[in-house]
Structure formats: C-alpha cells, structure tokens
C-alpha cells in the first residue's frame, strides 16, 4: 500500500508511511527497502499541503516521476522546484529552474526553505535511502504511540554531505509505518526529530500522514526543543 494513494509513494514514508506489509523477520536494509517500495508512485497526481512555522505558511506539493520525487514550494508568490533523484547507490537533490536542471551543492542541503526551519534535506527525507542500516536491540524505547517498532540506525555514507552523521528510524512492525526519525550530529547529539502526529485512512485501507512535526533541538542541550515546524497535508480525495 502507499502513503499517497496513486500519487506519490516515493517519499513520505517519511516522511512516513503507512502501509500494510509486515516487516518482521527481515534485516535492517530489507525493512528499509520495504518502506522505500511503499513510496513507489502509481500515478502522477500531485499531493499538496503546507509547511507551517508559527504564522508562516508555505504552500508546497510533491509528486513522483519515475525514479524522481518532485518538490515545489511557494516563496514570495513564486513557485520554486527541486527534485530528489533516487539512484542505486545514492540519492541527490537537483534544482530545476526555467526548465534547466542542475545538481544542488551539498552545502545547500541544510539551507532553510522560505523562512521556515525545514531544510531541503528535511523535506526530501533523503536519508531514508542510505544503505547499511542495523537493527537495534528492543527496549522500552521500541514503542511509539503504543505501537511495537523496529528501531533502525543508519550512518551517513558520505559524512561530509548533509546535516546528519546518522539517523534512527522507528518502523511499525505490523504495517511498516515510519513513526519517528531522529537525526544526530557528529557529536552524537540529537539535532532534529521528525514525528507523525496525525494520519488519514482512505477507503481502500491505506494510510497517509496528515501532519508531521519537526522539532529543532538546542545544540547546547539536545533535550530542549527550540523550534517547531509542521508539514500538513491536504485531504486526498477518494477515487
């Protein structure tokens, strides 16, 4: 099942996503691969929503085009676009302007979008495509929202690219939902937390996230949240 039915299954597992396939008895990379597969698009209908920080609201959309996820957001009443290009060994960001595409400099991955705290890498969830994950031992931290989860830790394969040295991902054991993603810096301190706060169920039984919260942590005290941003999706109409 996909997260955005007939629309975009290439990102938001992230950011998300609830599916129906079980992920028990699989390796870390197999579990992550199943999550990625849930985001494979079956259509090209755009999914729309907004990035919200306080009173700031930034309209955005995303859709899949084969092996590419297309992101668009509005800044100063002008629509901007960048793509997540998914390849066998890496996932990179591409800027698209006036029909011209060019690779985004890695130094721009952590730049904030349109006055929010959401970076290009955050919106694209590029780190979901890192390889070499490992399953952590189960503990009291394995439950999120009352759900039993696998916790997978994945190191950045190119530590000099992007804002995270490694991430931890909580994936529902039953339905493959990515409930939470924690991003850590090179010092091992929590830098950002992505968490699903509400979902919508479609008539075919599939789910997609309605709201994802992004917490920015204090560099001097990673237990303290210093900024909140939200990704909020419009309802997906039933066919």
Main features:
globular; mainly beta; 14 strands; disordered N terminus; outer membrane lipoprotein receptor (LolB), chain A; 239 residues
Structure report:
By secondary structure, the protein is mainly beta. It has a domain at 28-59 and 108-233: outer membrane lipoprotein receptor (LolB), chain A, CATH 2.50.20. It is 6% helix and 46% strand. The chain has 2 helices and 14 strands. It has helices at residues 28-37, 120-124, and strands at 47-53, 56-65, 68-75, 78-86, 91-97, 100-103, 134-135, 143-144, 147-155, 166-172, 178-184, 190-201, 207-218, 221-233. Strands 1, 2, 3, 4, 5, 6, 7, 8, 9, 10, 11, 12, 13 and 14 form a 14-stranded antiparallel β-sheet that branches. A hairpin with a 2-residue loop joins strand 2 and strand 3 (68-75). It starts with 27 loop residues before the first helix and ends in a 6-residue tail after the last strand.
Secondary structure topology:
Blueprint: H1 28-37, E1 47-53, E2 56-65, E3 68-75, E4 78-86, E5 91-97, E6 100-103, H2 120-124, E7 134-135, E8 143-144, E9 147-155, E10 166-172, E11 178-184, E12 190-201, E13 207-218, E14 221-233
Antiparallel strand pairs: 1-2, 1-14, 2-3, 3-4, 4-5, 5-6, 7-9, 8-9, 9-10, 10-11, 11-12, 12-13, 13-14
